[in-house]
Every structure is written in structure tokens, then in C-alpha cells.
Amino acid sequence: MKILVTGGTGFIGSHTAVELQQQGFEVLIVDDLSNSTAEVADRIGMITGTKPPLHVFDLCDAGKTEDLFIREEGIAAVIHFAAHKSVGESVQQPLKYYRNNLLSTVNLLESMARHGVKHLIFSSSCTVYGQPDELPVTEHTPLKRAESPYGNTKKIMEDIISDTVKTADVAAISLRYFNPTGAHESALIGEAPSGIPDNLVPYITQTAIGARSFLRVFGDDYDTPDGTPIRDYIHVVDLAKAHVVALKRMLDGKCKDRYEVFNLGTGRGYSVMEVIKAFERVSGMNLNYQVVARRPGDIVKIWADPSYANRELGWKAEKGLDDMMGSAWNWEQAGLHLSTLSTDA
Ligand code: WQD
Fold first, then answer.
1. 187 in any annotated domain
2. Can you tell me the mean pLDDT for 102-113?
3. What is d(CA 277, CA 266) in angstroms, rounded to the nearest whole number?
4. Which domain holds residue 294?
């Protein structure tokens, strides 16, 4: 079965491509390489033995998107990761995010409908919940206006998809990730943000390797046990496996609705300080960090109630925080992504 993975040279896309190939699916990648490199496709091949074909273009180009579906007969499903995803950048450049994330999704859905591709897995985010009033978060937790244009594009992309499946012959599952982190055990693929990392764990590992002088801890005066914000960190390989489980649910006709939503988290929240301490314990490094002012837009705490995904998908996150820290550190030490590092902040 041929599966089109958009954004497949990115962090979660590349790990999902590996799991798909290892479970017997044929993988096709489209990526504009705006936040990844073509070399990732080679590394997927090094892990699985099969380098997935990579089509490099922007899904905002409707003509090129349509051409791909014309040329690539027999696509059974699409897993849609392709999107800009920097919260900070989206605040500075909202139209770049609304144009890219929304137009690419519309083009994709139009071509899927024209070519009889009936199944879509969408990469969504817990960001759509904003700061929940109650924790843990379930799939019925009310959505709130996201704190950033990036998060709002995820909510709007879900709306575009859920409205489309009502009439088009396409069914969809949205997977709302909590905080993806870690790396593949081979250390051949991992989180390789271009430029200065927004996210906590790549900033930790880049500080430990000496590429950053110190980690800024954005505030320790929050309403949490140690004052630092809490997140539900989930290993990227656990996340990738969930995509294959959701895909098989669709292809085997087991969906209970044309549009389904699942939270993908571990159910365990960790504070920033707990993550730092876990990294130090696993790596044996003393991390250089300083507490600074809060980061605008940060929520205080969020973690998932993963029981619906556990029950309905038969999937459960298996890897713990130490594995996330250890695999992220191995990936950083492998240094395969140093080309994407920019000078220090
Ligand atoms: C986590 C915590 C920061 C960097 C991200 C994505 C979002 C979604 C969920 C995909 C916060 C603190 C961070 C640093 C720090 N993923 N921090 N110093 O903001 O929860 O959201 O994951 O859809 O799109 O942005 O993740 O890793 O940026 O921050 O203290 O240098 O770490 O304040 O409390 P976040 P993050």
C-alpha cells in the first residue's frame, strides 16, 4: 500500500516513514525542505533498507500538488505533517503561517478528492486546547483560541478537514500531539530545527554539546510544584507508531466516524526542571541554565488523559522520560544535523 507522507523529512514525519516502511507500507514523501534536508530520506533508507522517493515542492502550489497525484497512481492514504510550526515565528509572521498551513491543506484535500484518495491522517496539536481549565485533557475538553497563529492554524486545519469529510469521499483522523521529543535509537534521524531551537529539549542538548552557551528557563514563578511549566512529553517513536495504528484503523474500515480525533500523550506531565534533571541524570552532564523572564504565550500546565487512544486505538506510549533524554542526547552527539545549527542566540 502506497502512503503519501507530506513533511516526511521533518521530525515526526521521518520517524513515521520509518515505522510505515518497517510495517510493510510503501512510502512516498513530499517536502519543501523549508525546515529539513533531503539527506533525511537517505537516512530513512539507512535505517529501513529502502530510501523513500522524495518529491521536493511546496504544497501551496496547486499545480504541482495535482501533478503528483496524476503521476503517483494508487495512493491509499495521506499522512499530512507538512506545516510551519514555530510558535514564536508565527507571532511575528502570521500571514506566512495562515497562507502556508491552510493553503497547502486545501490543495491537498482537493487533489485527494479528485483522485479518489479516501483516507487522511492529520498532524494536529494539543495547542488547540490552549490553557485547559481542567486537567488531564480528554478529546472532549473544550478547545480554546490558541495562544499563537501557529496553534490557530492547527485548529482551522482541523475545521477544514472535518467540514470536508462531511461531503467529500474522504475520511480523516486528527492526532493531537502533546510534546514530541527524543530520537530514533539509530541516532540517524531526530529533531533538527533549523536555526535557534524554540523547543526545550533540542535547546538542552545543544547547550550540553556546547553549541549554545546556556539554557534560558522561561520563568519559575508559575503555579506548579517547582514553579516551572508542566508538559506531557512523548517519545517521537511512540508517536510514529500511533500513526501506523491509526492508519491501519482507517484502512481496515474500523473507524466509527468519518472524522475522529485522538490525543497522543503519555498521561504524565513533567516540569521544565524535572526535564533538566532527567537530562543531567541520563547524560552525566551538568547543564548550564539560568532562570529568565516568562516567555509570552506559554501556558502553565497541560497533560493528556490518553485512555481513549489507549482503548480505541489499542496504542499506548511505552517510552519514558529517560529514554527521551537519552535518545535526544545520542542524536545530538551523533552531530548529523550540525549543518542546521546557526550561531548562538
Ligand atoms: C516547553 C516548555 C517553555 C525552551 C510545543 C510546540 C507546540 C506543540 C507542543 C506541536 C515551556 C520551556 C522552552 C527554552 C524553556 N507541538 N522552555 N526554555 O511551547 O509546550 O509547545 O510542543 O504541535 O507546537 O511549540 O514546547 O518545548 O517550546 O516549551 O524554558 O529554551 O519549556 O517555557 O514551558 P511548547 P517548548
1. no
2. 98
3. 19
4. 200-231+267-338
Is residue 98 part of the annotated active site? The answer reads no
Catalytic pick among 97, 150, 203, 259: 150
Q: Nearest 5°: phi and psi at 71?
A: -75, -35
Q: What is the CATH number of the domain that holds 51?
A: 3.40.50.720
137 Cα: distance to centroid of ligand 1 (angstroms): 17
C-alpha 240 to ligand 1 mean position (Å): 20
Question: In this structure, are residues 277 and 321 in contact, taking their beta carbons and an 8 Å threshold?
Answer: no
Alpha helices in the chain (DSSP H): 11-22, 39-48, 62-71, 87-92, 94-97, 103-114, 149-164, 200-209, 236-251, 272-283, 307-313, 321-334
The 10s digit of each residue's pLDDT in 281-300 is 999 999 999 999 999 889 99
What distance in Å separates the CA atoms of residue 16 and residue 239, rounded to the nearest whole number?
8
80 in any annotated domain: yes
